Amino acid sequence: MADLIIRKAGEEDATAIWELEKACFEDPWSLDSISFELRENPHALYLLATEEDEAVGYMGIWCLLDEGQVTNVAVHPAHRGKHIAQRILEDMIRITTSGGIKHHTLEVRPSNAAAIGLYEKMGFKTEGRRKKYYQNNGEDALIMWRHEE
Ligand SMILES: CC(C)(COP(=O)(O)OP(=O)(O)OC[C@H]1O[C@@H](n2cnc3c(N)ncnc32)[C@H](O)[C@@H]1OP(=O)(O)O)[C@@H](O)C(=O)NCCC(=O)NCCS
Asked: Could you tell me which residues are beta bridge partners of residue 142?
């Protein structure tokens, strides 16, 4: 298996992340939004995973006070099932907790069994629900949290 490299993403990675967004989501973020996140959002941290210089996955988080709000986690369909998302999340949580984050939270569609399985494996638990949260189909969002000791 090719070596997986996980590193902090910069503005120069915006297009690679946008390509992953389009491959992974029905309602992808725009290139402008991704560029803004990488260039101007002081609270945002993005990690990019590559294999042999190919972008295979990424994750974003907003850190405010002691709380980390996960914005997105995605792995290219051709590279799923190899624990890439898990390794990105593990690296991210290591970085954020060492920076003082004590609570991680995210929203996920109840229909997204893969993502829920990933988050549960990483210690997240469902603590709430937002009704009709997703604009493209009116689906609810589950609100999941992971609290550090
Ligand atoms: C969710 C996603 C990021 C998982 O990426 P991945 O690299 O394939 O996941 P991993 O291989 O790291 O899986 C880690 C764990 O997650 C769970 N998991 C992953 N895929 C799963 C699936 N299809 N069904 C159930 N659980 C699953 C398992 O517990 C797995 O551990 P295991 O293989 O030891 O059982 C990927 O499916 C994806 O990009 N989906 C589209 C984008 C998306 O929905 N992102 C989440 C938005 S909230």
From this structure: 108, 129
Sign of CA dihedral 55, 47, 137, 126: positive
pTM for this predicted structure: 0.97
How far apart (Å, rounded) are the C-alpha atoms in residues 115 and 132?
19
Residue type, 13: D
Tokens of 24: 């992974």
Q: Ligand 1: distance of its center to the CA of 116 in Å?
A: 8
Query: How do the domains of the chain map onto residue ranges?
Result: 4-147
Q: Note the pLDDT tens digit of each residue in 13-51.
A: 999 999 999 999 988 999 999 999 999 999 999 999 999
Cβ < 6 A, ligand 1 pocket:
24-25, 73-75, 80-86, 108, 112-115, 117-118, 121
In the CATH scheme, what architecture does the domain 4-147 have?
A: 3-Layer(aba) Sandwich (3.40)
Cα 80 to middle of ligand 1, angstroms? 7
Is the distance from CB of 48 to CB of 16 less than 8 angstroms?
yes
Q: Give the tens place of pLDDT for each residue, 135-146.
A: 889 999 999 999
Residue in this structure with the two tokens 């993502």, named with its chain if needed: 115
- Residue of 19, 107, 118 best suited for mutating to test ligand 1, as the one with most atoms within 8 Å of CB: 118
